[in-house]
Amino acid sequence: MEVKVIEAYRVQHSHHRLPTKGGIRYAENVDQHEVMALATLMSYKCAIVHVPFGGAKGGVKINPRDYTEEELERITRRYTYELVRRNFIGPSIDVPAPDYGTGGREMAWIYDTYRTLRENEIDAAGCVTGKPVALYGIQGRTEATGRGVFYGLREACSDVQDMKKVGMQTGLGGKTMIIQGMGNVGSYTGTISQQEGDVKVVGVGEYEGSIYLESGIDIEKLLEIRKDSGSILNYPGATVIPQADRNKILEMPCDILVPAALENQITSENADRIQAKIIGEAANGPISSAAEEILLKKGILIVPDVFLNAGGVTVSYFEWLKNLSHMRFGRMEKRFNQTSQERMLHVIEELTGRKIDPEVLRKVARGADEVDLVRSGLEETMSRSYQFIHEFQRKHNIDMRTAAFAYAIKLIGDDYTSLGIFP
Question: What is the pTM of this model?
Answer without folding.
Answer: 0.89
